[in-house]
Amino acid sequence: LDEVGHNILSITQGTDTDVLGNDSIVWDTVTSKGMNLWNVTNTTTGSALLSNYLQGSKFTDPGFPATEGLTFKVTGPPDAFKNFLVTAHGGGAQDPPLQGSQDWGGFPTAYTGRVNQAIGTGWFFHGGGSSSGSYDTMISRIIRGSKWTYLIPYDFEYRFTYEDDNYAYLAYTSWSLIRVPMELWNVTQGYRLPLWSYDYDENEAWGLTPYDSPGSGGSNDPFTDWVYPRLPANYATAGNAAGDDETGYQEWLAASIAAGIASGGPATPDANGSYLTGATGA
Which of 75, 103, 135 is a domain's end point? Predict the structure, then answer.
């Protein structure tokens, strides 16, 4: 079993004779007219064994070709998260990464000590409104309809940078635009995403609430206000090789501030950097 990007290759030996012997094979993916195709080549002889086959959409799809006594199955990834990792904290980059979610309840995360912050604490990723700590419960909260379409095969990264242009829109409570400590990036394609938030404790700020999370199983683990990632308006073309495209995010931020001013909100932020009055969402 191997992966190229997020395509999955599974090779199964058939009932007929395997004639590869000590020969080597290699598979690769190509894109033609918007379709994902794949090839298999015998690198010892240089012969093309299979050429320009369509990948299946899921790993369970039937109808895959056989050659040289082997059956080849190439599909897209399963509808699931691969991992939740902390790659850096206040002490710098973490290599290897630390766990970014719980390692129980069905999460695909390996135990690394359950401490992932420089000060000796642990922050875990979970779903707002989850009724228990299980992975399946989290998925039922954060993945609805066809939302896997927007997640797979990309990697996303929350970065707690505390920059002055970090904002979230309180779409479900006051409609304020508040300063937050983090950014969210599609690191695969290299662009920044806007954020919405549910201000759970309605204090016009993002942070820990005084309520306990069901995720840990204990009674002393509060959770933050909920975060809703949003795609920028230009998401279809967003991203660059440098991985630092903020164009769509900055356009969203400027439009949100302008919408707040147009609805009677302030033209300048308060002492905390937030725009607390008016419908600021765009």
Answer: 75
